[in-house]
Amino acid sequence: MKILTVVGARPQFVKAAAVSRILRETHTEVLVHTGQHYDERMSEVFFRELGIPEPDYNLEVGSAGHSVQTGEMLIRMEPIFEKEKPDWVLVYGDTNSTLAGALVASKLHIPVAHVEAGLRSFNREMPEEINRVLTDHVSQLLFCPAQKAVENLKLEGVTSGVHVVGDVMYDAVLRHSDEAEKKSSILTLLDLKPKQYLLATVHRASNVDDTAKLLNILETFSMLGETVVFPVHPRTRKAIQIAGFKPGENIKLIEPVGYLDMLWLEKNARMILTDSGGVQKEAYWFGTPCVTLRDETEWVETVESGWNVVAGTERERILKAVQKKLLPAAHSNLFGAGDASQKIVRLLESKAG
Ligand code: UD1
Ligand code: UDP
Fold first, then answer.
1. How far is the CA of 220 from the centre of ligand 2 (A)?
2. Ligand 1 contact, 63 CB (< 6 A)
3. Which pLDDT value is given to residue 325?
């Protein structure tokens, strides 16, 4: 079986690493990196730490508005798909790279398999929501992390090829947690004590591109009275510079960290504040309480089980959520048992023509 995998953004490197490892034991994988993320700390570090093979193709699309970025991906991908003639095109998550890969494949009548299918925020102003919906509707195999995603798909009339496999990010967490503990020196470097700091990430377009909203979030962090470690996404770094924000003394603004350092920071944080999708789930797997800086989440199971609070971006609500003692239900495997990658590869095999 020949699989062509499309990746491009940070969370996709983590997800694809888990599946790729199993896939390559018996099959051929052609890896296409769109170049959506390209900074060393947004791309290369993940290939190195997660042992992802060099991409066979790097489209070097880089940053641009949605249309130009997605359009360039379409133009550059088509001849590669035509040449490689894979049995499946495998796409992950909900970025512009996901949609571009799915669209090119479906136009060329190559079956599409979507990992992390069926997630919905029900907010169509999010670029990711458009990418998810469209990708799901052109996919032949839809790999859902949990049952809720199956129900979301059913509401849109998508029932064929839908499978609950669990979450591949959990596979990655299980595989790399011990290594993170052994190799990461981030706590020492930043002079942090376990459970005596908060970890924050903010990169969602709706939080960053609106300067007033971003400033409100950052000023709220300054008021928390606890150390806040904040690895800053490049999109956010640029916005912070433009806004001229001066962080409070309790805030440690740092460059994006590698995957192993991130896992170790997440595990040892007292609490995580984030608008990231992947980080909400990782918080859950580490049993670290999470405050989500958005008005809704796709990962509703983490909220229902009491491990995550959707606080939005208003100051009072964030401050209240950080003070609140979460009383979570017992910790169960909401997103599978860490064997999602195995299940995905077996299903691809069983459906290959
Ligand atoms: C993208 C995804 C988002 C995902 C996130 C993961 C879309 C629409 N959004 O958002 O779903 O959660 O990746 O991190 O696909 N930049 C750099 N260096 C880089 C990459 C980006 O400086 O290596 C800067 C550029 O100024 C760029 C901006 O960040 O314009 C935004 O990058 P982009 O890939 O368009 O969106 P993300 O916010 O990263
Ligand atoms: N991550 C990382 N370093 C950072 C921030 C995030 O390694 O400085 C990892 C994080 O642990 C998770 C993934 O990147 O595995 C999530 O990516 P991101 O938050 O950019 O995207 P999202 O999940 O929101 O699409």
1. 22
2. yes
3. 76
Sign for the CA dihedral angle at 76, 79, 82, 84 comes to: negative
In this structure, the answer to whether residues 276 and 201 fall within a common structural domain is yes
Same-domain pairing of 206 and 342: no
131 CB neighbour count, 10 Å cutoff: 22
Give the pLDDT score at 353: 58
Q: What is the mean pLDDT of the chain?
A: 97
HSE at residue 30, side-chain half, CA atoms within 13 A, is: 19
137 is catalytic: no
Could you report the per-residue pLDDT of 140-151, keeping only the tens digit for each? 999 999 999 999
Task: Identify which ligand lies nearest to the alpha carbon of 238.
Answer: 1
The active-site residue out of 33, 37, 114, 203 is 203
Q: Do 347 and 302 fall within a single domain?
A: no
